[in-house]
Amino acid sequence: xxxxxxxxxxxxxxxxxxxxxxxxxxxxxxxxxxxxxxxxxxxxxxxxxxxxxxxxxxxxxxxxxxxxxxxxxxxxxxxxxxxxxxxxxxxxxxxxxxxxxxxxxxxxxxxxxxxxxxxxxxxxxxxxxxxxxxxxxxxxxxxxxxxxxxxxxxxxxxxxxxxxxxxxxxxxxxxxxxxxxxxxxxxxxxxxxxxxxxxxxxxxxxxxxxxxxxxxxxxxxxxxxxxxxxxxxxxxxxxxxxxxxxxxxxxxxxxxxxxxxxxxxxxxxxxxxxxxxxxxxxxxxxxxxxxxxxxx
Length: 296
Ligand SMILES: [Fe+2]
What we know:
Number of strands: 12
Number of helices: 7
Strand content: 15-25%
Strand order of the largest sheet: 2-3-10-7-12-6-4-5
Structural class: alpha+beta
Bound molecules: fe (ii) ion
Helix content: 25-40%
């Protein structure tokens, strides 16, 4: 793993070599909640010999971005293949979910009982090959926010692991701290149209009500991606995550861009901001302070 010497230094490295309870690092809620990326360069997600064949984009449905297991159902989505192959592929992804959960609960014991398992995904396709609209272009720095899936203050904690077999790193850029980012666009974070949140939920555009917080987060996401000057000149650093590296961050807080790489595992966890060790450091509370109004 290598990082440019730059204004942004938010990657903290740990030497853990075990996913389970015997690893050394624990009680680092304050680090991840401060908007840092926890990186474990010696914590590979090991594939069994029979699983290496899955490192091939042919297992991914061309219409789907990635192969995933949904929870709580445990259903496999986005994969194509024979039934016994898909069963083995699912088992590999489920194992990553279990490893990630054990790691997260050791690192963040304060979250025990509050951490909910979101999707587990396997991304065998090359980042560079995707053609997208600017809004969906994840090679531009952004915080995660989704038009159809309002989080209402629930946090997105993500565990990533590079399983590339050819030595190819997962290449990211990371950007300025969330508070500085929100302050940059504070003047253009308008309020939603009256009634629009109710209407979008009623007709199924959103899965639940888009709160003022979600509205602000979507605007931050869109303003940043649409702002070429910001993308080019804002404080940022390149980070290469080598194969065998696992890393964790709150992706709704850390400015990030996926510049390249192929073959990655990803686990999403959800946790309500009230259950953080330091709720006042959350994007919701940060935005409320900056905008001087409640956003729930
Ligand atoms: Fe993202």
